[in-house]
Amino acid sequence: MGVFSRNIIIAIDGPAGSGKSSAARLLAKTLGYLYLDTGALYRAVGWKALKEGVSVQDEEVLAKLCSRLKLTVRPAGDGMKIYVDGRDITGAIRTPDVSRAAAAVAVVAAVRHRLLGIQRRMGKKTGAHGGIVVEGRDIGTVVFPEATVKFFLNASPEVRVKRRYQELRQQGMPVDLTVTRQEIDTRDLKDSSREIAPLKVAEDAIRIDSTGLTLDGVVSTMLETIQQKAGLKR
Length: 234
Hints:
The chain has 234 residues and is α/β, with parallel strands linked by helices. The chain is built from nine helices and eight strands. The chain has a single domain (8-227), classed as P-loop containing nucleotide triphosphate hydrolases (Rossmann fold), CATH 3.40.50.300. The chain has helices spanning 20-31, 38-52, 59-68, 96-105, 109-123, 139-143, 157-170, 177-193, 215-230; strands at residues 8-13, 34-37, 71-76, 79-84, 87-88, 131-136, 149-154, 206-209. It has a five-stranded parallel sheet, sandwiched between helices. The protein has a three-stranded antiparallel sheet with strand order 3-4-5, with helices on one face. The chain is globular.
């Protein structure tokens, strides 16, 4: 059971490199809640499209791919595992190619509709876990507009690029700082300008600038806000 007595949904939105994934995982672990990285779901669709040689620009083909996609999400320690057609692809989806594919499929209505259903079903499975921490780019605005507490995490462009660059290097990926900056700029533009569920700050979201904060500092700020805003007690 989570450390708080109420079953709640905590939404964390933000752009790439803002630190939302690390913060969401640690927050969920601290609370004893489920954790859901919705971006991983779009990566799974992008991975499947690349594997089958499907154009990520072909909406009709992507819609068919999504309709037969067997996508499973399972809690794993302080994170989650992603399975497609029974295969664990948790590590395979963390490549620059899959990131670009994910950004492309994220603008397709059929893809978003299919994944929206999966996300909302996950949100209903808080049960014994006491709650769920969900992170992505449209959680507080579209997926869970009724979330108990909403955060929007951001950081300076320089810090975001550096974080993404270091993340890819740690994964053993061949990376270039200039290319990383260009990819983040491109992703930001796609996320904020897409017609369906664009990245934006929910009206009732708490903004946190993580530029000068440690991970523990971000999570401590979130915990204080959750206790105050949701009226939860340990």
